[in-house]
Amino acid sequence: MVMYIKIEKLLIIIFVLAGLSSSAGLRAVLNYSIFNSPTKGPYIETYLSVDGSSATYTKLENGLFRCSIEVTMIFRKDTAIIDFDKYELFSSPVADTSDLYLDLLDQQRYFLPEGEYEFEILLSDLNSMDEPFSSVQPVIIKFESEKVCFSGIELIDSISVSENQNILTKCGYDIIPWVFYYYPAFKNKLIFYTEIYNTDKYFGLDGKFVLKCYLESFESGLTLSPYVFYKRAVSREIYPFINEYDISGLPTGNYKLVVEVRDKENNHITSNVLVFQRNNPNIKFDLSTLSDVDITKTFAGKIMSEDTLDGYIRSLAPRATQMEQVFIYKKLETSELEVKQRFFYHFWVQRDHYNPEIAWKEYNELVKIVDDRYSTQIHRGFDTDRGRVYLKYGPPNIITESYNEPASYPYEIWQYYKLGNNQSNKRFVFYTHDVTTNYFTLLHSDAIGEIQNYRWQIFLNQRWFDPYNIDIERVPDIYGGRVHDYYRNPR
Predict the structure, then answer these.
(1) Please, what CATH class does the domain formed by 144-283 belong to?
(2) Rounded to the nearest 10 degrees, how much is the dihedral formed by the CA atoms of 275, 279, 282, 283?
(3) Which of 3.40.50.10610, 3.30.360.10, 2.60.40.10, 2.30.130.10 would CATH assign to domain 1-143?
(4) Which of 241, 372, 418, 475 has the smallest number of CB atoms closer than 10 Å to its CB?
């Protein structure tokens, strides 16, 4: 859920929380986690990383150079400012600014009562004449008092036993955060920290429970068996949990880190999810892995029309892993019929070992629905944003359609009461510049891993507002406009 923003253009990239970039090239990434202290109450912990090579440096009296970034953080509830902080972030003095690889890392904590907030951050390069950059996003702080619940999941760059209590200290350890939800090729360990609350109330004092954590494919939901971990635990008021994965063999792709609390009978109690992205060019899609797939007397082996099979395989993209998408988008046209049959059969055996043909037929019925509803003259239904979401998550519970508001482009808001096992009450906003094309683009969603653009109402009202003007953060009430009401209460 990260957002890279530039003044001249807004570019939203899935799987980063809130990346910031000013017009002068100041590059930064903001991430945060929410925790709950038994003595002080809830707090939000912010992690900010500024690329030192993107800042402007000035010469000090001693001949060295240093950059200075002014950071302002504001937490609003309705229109009231609940907390406010302004400080300067300095680099270490350097002798040469022509070859900089340093990052400025900053962590802060803000204790806030439970509620819904608007979190704004402003970054300003104090050695530059450029205007400060601002970004606003919603934050919800809520912890159940009697039920088992999680803090946020903090990704870790390094961890060590704490010698002196400081802002990096948690449960006796000094934790240096890994700010990004992206793991490049050189980063081969995924370490994380989370806290579980109220297990003593739910399971009783010294009660037993099980912690399960695992990685799964973001697109397919398939659990990756080499990355499943169980731990027996004893209940307490706050149970801190640190775990580490070797991801050197994890292929390039999008993944979920899932942490679950289960009872002694292995019943699921609650869970938390974090989405991340891995880049690992050392692991490539190998067609030879399909050579052992036996398609004799299978439904896939009976499909003899290559055009038909190609269409079937392309329709799998919304549920395919990134490695499977390599085959779909890059190797499908050059592969022979038998290789395609093996890929198709293997795809469904991976998802339903006992009834792969039934799983395919049920999915294909959905493909027919999206083709009927969302196809255009040049796109199959599964190639559109609405079709992808429908095939990935199933039919929404509510679709609100609004095609004739005076200030807004035609749009649809989809609401899902449940999205998988870990998300509730999620929305997708689609819009089009021309409803006659039937091609709607996904503009915003609050679902994990989807595009999140908290200025989406401004983009929807481009007839009245410039979406790239950072001074406009909120859309005022417009005559005939109902999008805000529809988003909060779809119907």
Answers:
(1) mainly beta
(2) 40
(3) 2.60.40.10
(4) 372
